[in-house]
Amino acid sequence: MGRLLIIKTAWILWAVVCLAVFLGHAAQSQSTQGNIPTISAAPAAQVLPPPPNYRFPDGQTYVYAVEWHMLTAGTAKVTLQNEGAEQHVIATAVSSGFVNALYKVSDHFEAFFDPHKFCSLRVSKHVEEGSRAKQVELRFDYSRGKAVEDEKNLKTGEIRHVENDIPACVTDVVSGFYYMSSLPLQEGNGYIFAVNDGGKTTEVSLRVETHEQVKVPAGTFQTIRVKAEPTTGALKGKGTVWTWYTADNVHMPVQMRSKLAWGTLLFRLLRVEKQ
Prior knowledge:
The chain is mainly beta and 275 residues long. It has one domain (2-274). The protein is built from four helices and 14 strands. Strands 8-7-6-5-4-3-2-1-14-13-12-11-10-9 form a 14-stranded antiparallel β-sheet. A hairpin with a 5-residue loop joins strand 7 and strand 8. It starts with a helix and ends with a strand.
């Protein structure tokens, strides 16, 4: 259960998400003209650059309480920092309460992406789950069309090197958290994007569903609800993620819900910390 918790924590962090998306400039043009694009009519998955007027929420940390079956499962944090030519995302997931007693989790993720194209550049993951501990370094070599992953088992010292094909631009499970926020989230719109976490690239479909008022510990917000689910790869049919973004130009993710075979995870915004 703990391992699944972290897998889905990472998934939600991008898929809100996080997560890298959408139909393309043509789809945005159609939306402007009043034609609502649908997933069935969407072109191949692609990651779009941010709009010219988009402002990254640099220096802000989103802090979420994680609940499972109405029990406290842990805390997740996501921070964005500007580092010149790159954007730097830091995300942590720490178990607590009943879940922590069963399976202790303390994970730290860092991702870097191109702020002009939104293409992921590299990801670093320090994972501690139960008796397991590993360090993973992932980089995206677009010149070779490869995702290059090096994993070290911190308990046994075993090293694993894997390379997989990638398209011209992908997002990752951490950077996708901000990618989705940058898109025009108009009710009825549909998008497709590519995400890679070191293995085979997965295509994810996203549907902007409806407006809702949501109450979380951080306050009450008018939001737009977005549904995301993988349509290819190992995660196909394994889960669905809903994210509630503020219905303004900021698109702050205030709540996330992931429906899985073994239950539902709920992420609710506790507060926003500013550096």
